[in-house]
């Protein structure tokens, strides 16, 4: 099987139900999810390759998330979503929330906004978080113009919270402090996994 098909040379691509321009809002949405999946793969590879014993749970979770991001892209590839064929479901969101709650127990209370970084694993997870936010925005744009499965948007919203909390837990496991935004006031009065 050849990798190249030449069918996209004129700037169009196939979705389930037809062909669209490669800059169509639907393609932009699932393309950004594909970009996010690459970032998650990078974070998982770094976690798997270093700090033996600290990251087994994180690597396992990131691998699950990579498969679920493929599910998100699959669901978005339908020009007209067919409910019985959609793969993203509420149980996936519930699992993310359980992981978030567990990681929160490892982190100190948050008082101020923090800057992405600290340790390398945390920095990569923050990259995942910001790309996830962009993917969510693209899905919101899609939903404003075309049919779009709601579960994908909800999943991405919760996933960005997961990356934020996992990044903080990664720093905590390595004994590295989060870098607080120094010109910010105390804005959090209780434990929180994110600011949205």
What does this structure look like?
This protein has 196 residues and is mainly alpha-helical. 57% of the residues lie in helices and 6% in strands. It has five helices and four strands. A hairpin with a 2-residue loop joins strand 1 and strand 2. Helix 1 packs antiparallel against helix 2 and helix 4 packs antiparallel against helix 5. The N and C termini lie far apart (45 Å).
Helix/strand-derived category reads: mainly alpha
Instruction: Indicate the radius of gyration in whole angstroms.
Output: 18 Å
CATH topology: Hypothetical Protein Ta1238, Chain: A
CATH architecture: Up-down Bundle
- Strand order, largest beta sheet: 1-2
| Sheet with most strands | 2 strands, antiparallel
Distance from first to last alpha carbon: 45 Å
What is the strand tally?
4
Following the backbone from N to C, one meets helices and strands in this order, namely EEHHHEHHE
General form: globular
- CATH secondary-structure class: Mainly Alpha
Uncertain runs are: none
Mean pLDDT across residues: 86
Helix content: 55-70%
- Tally of DSSP helical segments: 5
The fraction of residues assigned to DSSP E strands is: 5-15%
Keywords: ATP-binding, Cobalamin biosynthesis, Nucleotide-binding, Transferase
Organism: Cohnella kolymensis
Protein name: Corrinoid adenosyltransferase
InterPro entries: CblAdoTrfase-like, CblAdoTrfase-like_sf, PduO-typ
């Amino acid at each position: 099987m050849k990798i190249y098909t030449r069918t996209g040379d004129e700037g169009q691509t196939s979705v389930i139900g037809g062909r669209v321009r490669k800059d169509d809002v639907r393609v932009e949405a699932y393309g950004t999810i594909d970009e996010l999946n690459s970032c998650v793969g990078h974070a998982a590879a770094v976690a798997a390759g270093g700090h033996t014993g600290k990251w087994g749970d994180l690597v396992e979770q990131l691998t699950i998330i990579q498969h679920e991001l493929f599910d998100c892209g699959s669901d978005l590839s339908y020009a007209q979503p067919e409910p019985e064929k959609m793969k993203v479901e509420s149980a996936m969101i519930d699992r993310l929330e359980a992981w978030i709650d567990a990681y929160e127990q490892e982190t100190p209370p948050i008082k101020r906004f923090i800057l992405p970084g600290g340790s390398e694993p945390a920095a990569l997870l923050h990259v995942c978080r910001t790309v996830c936010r962009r993917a969510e925005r693209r899905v919101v744009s899609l939903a404003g113009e075309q049919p779009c499965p709601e579960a994908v948007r909800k999943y991405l919203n919760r996933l960005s919270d997961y990356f934020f909390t996992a990044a903080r837990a990664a720093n905590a496991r390595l004994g590295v402090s989060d870098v607080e935004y120094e010109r910010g006031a105390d804005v959090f009065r209780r434990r929180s996994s994110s600011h949205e």
